[in-house]
Design brief:
This protein is α/β, with parallel strands linked by helices. The chain has 16 helices and 23 strands.
């Protein structure tokens, strides 16, 4: 982050200086009192189970030069205290001010499934022409997006920012910070349907990204998603569609799975045909690559360089990471789960399996509301329909997954269910043998990586 003066911070957040020097320079913004560095401005946030205001004094002792506060507080001697009405809103307001200092292209990404993989793919492509700032880890919410923006400095030539949400209004607030020049929506699924009630409402919430889109900006949408393609000719922005259907602006064809080595497809760009290789398994990654291609072309990167970037793509941690351990092949896809991503991961399990037995170790998919029981049953059925040998279900909805698998024709001797990760891991440790291939996947709250850790320790 570049230096921010106390005076401009006060102006950006609409605050009042309680104590300290108005000419103080801050080198970083922190919301975590455990990671304070010399020269920081501490922003104490208030949650259901915590209140950062309790750590203001500690942060100042650790080297922070000042703090925001929404509480009434007395002077902090020579340290800066700035009174605001709401520290979370102040964090957003300050990030909005800081982002406006940079006249570089910003890409905003949202969608029900594949946001992070698309962010990584777009970043890999744009890195062939720019020094790119991208969202790190899961910093895609109302705290993470501002902190991502504060990582900008004058060396950056482009930014790729992921935006998540669980309800209406969240993406609206995030896009008002980022103000993207390119807005990408990956798809409209059923994640968060518990709060939003329908896929049409989910579409409406995702479309909030357009509120911040530069009026001369570009919308890049998945044309194979019926809800998104329904926006054709309805948006006031330039719009391109990607996918595998005919007549789309960026269309992949001649798809070929290479198993564990990834996949290839052909595409026509600027009047010439190219073959693109994705170095990770899963045909669903073709969509991520197409979004990257569209963004790269928009920002003037040559097709040849774009293809180089895609070939250097690497998925994030616990996203279809393939581990080889003592004769076992383990697909660690434990970062999160939805019905769509479950099916995609099961497809990868099938694609990379050879002679060994296949195991789908499936945990709960959270935030599905009224469709939770039916969605878990459908996942069990889908795994069996793809020829997966053994189904291992874990969590509250384990019986639904098991029921779906058995209903689809799996013998009861091939379907197992366990209440928690430890029980499932103990069973697998005894039951697995060299040559077996297993997928481990569930929602973030299930912490399915615990199973992977036990199997590989």
């Amino acid at each position: 982050m570049e230096t921010l003066k106390c005076e401009e911070i006060i102006r950006a957040v609409g605050g009042t200086l309680i104590s300290g020097e108005i000419n103080t320079d801050f080198n970083n913004i922190s919301t975590d009192s455990r990671n304070i560095k010399e020269g920081d401005l501490f922003v104490p946030l208030v949650g259901e189970r915590f209140d950062g205001h309790n750590y203001i004094a500690h942060s100042l002792e650790q080297g922070a030069l000042g703090s925001l506060t929404q509480r009434e507080m007395e002077s902090a001697n020579d340290k800066v205290l700035i009174k605001v009405s709401d520290t979370l809103k102040a964090l957003r307001d300050l990030a909005t001010y800081y982002r406006q200092k940079y006249k570089i292209p910003f890409v905003g990404i949202t969608g029900s499934v594949g946001k992070t993989s698309t962010k990584e793919m777009v970043s890999a492509v744009l890195s062939k022409g720019f020094n790119v700032l991208k969202t790190q880890g899961n910093f895609n919410n109302e705290i993470g997006v501002p902190l991502t923006v504060f990582n900008l400095d004058r060396s950056h030539e482009a930014a790729v920012v992921e935006m998540g949400m669980s309800g209406f209004g969240e993406i609206s607030r995030l896009t008002s910070i980022v103000k993207p020049d390119i807005a990408i929506i990956t798809n409209i699924g059923v994640s968060h349907i518990e709060k939003l009630g329908s896929k049409n409402n989910i579409l409406k919430a995702k479309m909030e990204i357009f509120e911040g889109l530069n009026e001369k900006g570009l919308a890049i949408l998945n044309g194979d998603d019926k809800l998104l393609y329904g926006l054709n000719n309805l948006l006031k922005f330039r719009t391109v569609f990607y996918g595998m259907e005919e007549e789309l602006d960026y269309r992949a064809y001649n798809l070929e799975s290479l198993g564990e080595r990834g996949s290839t497809f052909d595409i026509e760009l600027q009047g010439k045909e190219y073959k693109v290789r994705i170095p990770v398994p899963g045909i669903h990654n073709v969509y991520n690559a197409l979004a990257g291609i569209a963004a790269g072309i928009e920002l003037g990167i040559s097709p040849e360089k774009i293809i180089e970037g895609i070939e250097e793509f690497s998925p994030g941690k616990m996203r279809l990471n393939i581990l080889n351990h003592k004769g076992l092949k383990i697909i660690n896809d434990a970062y999160n789960a939805s019905p769509q991503s479950m099916e995609a991961a099961i497809n990868v399990l099938k694609d990379i399996s050879c002679e060994g037995r296949t195991f789908a170790v499936l945990g709960d998919m959270l935030e599905l509301g009224e469709i939770s029981h039916s969605a878990h049953e459908e996942v069990g059925r889908y795994a069996v329909s793809k020829g997966i040998d053994y189904i291992v279900a874990v969590g509250e909805y384990r019986k639904n997954i098991a029921h779906g698998a058995i209903e689809a024709g799996a013998g009861e001797e091939r379907v197992f269910d366990f209440k928690d990760n430890a029980d499932a891991a103990r069973f697998l440790k005894e039951y697995l043998k060299s040559g077996d291939v297993l997928l481990v996947k569930g929602s973030r709250g299930m912490r399915m990586e615990e199973i992977v850790n036990i199997l590989t320790c």
